[in-house]
Write a structure and sequence with these properties.
The chain has 11 helices and 9 strands. It has 2 domains: about 140 residues, Rossmann fold; about 150 residues, Rossmann fold. It is α/β, with parallel strands linked by helices.
Length: about 300
């Protein structure tokens, strides 16, 4: 059964069946990653462009590796080494790339809506690898896959997203996806970092981290995005860590065997202590491995639609 849409622009409005299909397909590709030869010929002959206008480590490498594992030809676009540095417009850049007969474009951009714009000016399949503070769908998909892998289900779980909700594309993709899959979703953080309309999405707002730990089965801990001027929204890093940081003392005090996720990169000692980041509750490196499998699944499902 194919996906309903030929692009992956976000998880808002994506039906449960499509999310389930991507996660189930990723299970198969996760097994491929454990083989001595970690490659299948599934997308042989397909050409994929990785169009990253923002810095990235995990997402970019994960997509590149997923493409290689599927035997696709991949091209990595760097703005500093392209005609963009000479003043070429975004539209002209895309049309020139498409003229080279590419099949898929993986795009990350600081401007929300860029992946949608690409669907209007080129015929390739478009995959959103993060656009502004809008969405980051493959991160949410790998988070959901990791939760299901560890706990056996998503439906009925109580899952809290902690931190800078207002500036996080990861938070919104997770809210849309988790709600579609039947989880009870809440958010927790300083009031200055919680959008006023967030409850309209059907999520509960919690302002006390100890309450969030006590009430939930899973915490998805977001990075404080210092590069997006997040420090303007609370008095100091030290105060944020005091009131919202996840520490072993805080987990022990609440006596909860809770599952912890983090999309990375980690600000150790801020949103999460080093002891917790390396401890028994977290599955952070599992998320990284599962990210390759999820992106293989997305590339495969979209790449075989045509």
């Amino acid at each position: 059964m194919p996906l309903l849409n030929r692009h992956l622009l976000g998880l808002q409005g994506v039906p449960r069946e499509d999310i389930q299909l991507i996660i189930d397909t990723a299970v198969t590709f996760r097994e491929v990653l454990e083989r001595p030869i970690k490659r299948v010929p599934t997308l042989q002959g397909k050409t994929i462009v990785n169009l990253f206008y923002e810095n990235s480590t995990r997402t970019r490498i994960s997509f590149e590796l997923a493409e290689k594992r599927l035997s696709a030809d991949s091209i990595n676009f760097s703005t500093s080494q392209s005609s963009v540095a000479k003043g070429e417009s975004f539209k002209d850049t895309i049309r020139n790339i498409e003229a080279m007969k590419v099949d898929m474009v993986v795009v990350r951009h600081s401007a929300a809506g860029t992946p949608l714009y690409l669907t209007k000016i080129c015929d390739a399949n478009i995959i959103n690898a993060g656009d502004g503070i809008h969405e980051h769908p493959t991160q949410a998909l790998l988070d959901m896959y990791s939760i299901r892998e560890k706990l056996g289900r998503i439906a009925g779980l109580k899952i809290c997203i902690v931190g800078d909700i207002a500036h996080s594309r990861v938070a919104f993709s997770n809210i849309y996806g988790l709600k579609s899959m039947g989880a009870e979703v809440s958010v927790c953080g300083p009031s200055t970092m919680i959008p006023k309309s967030i409850q309209d999405l059907g999520v509960k707002v919690i302002y006390n981290i100890d309450e969030a730990i006590q009430e939930n089965d899973v915490l998805n801990i977001l990075r404080i995005q210092l590069e997006r001027k997040a420090r303007e929204y609370f008095p100091s890093i030290r105060e944020y860590a005091k009131y919202f940081g996840i520490t072993s003392e805080r987990l022990n005090k609440n006596g909860k065997d809770i599952l912890l996720l983090h999309p990375g990169p980690i600000n150790r000692g801020v949103e999460i202590s080093s002891e917790v980041a390396d401890g028994k509750h977290q599955i952070i490196l599992n998320q990284v491995t599962n990210g390759v499998a999820i992106r293989m699944a997305v590339l495969y499902l979209l790449g075989t639609l045509n």
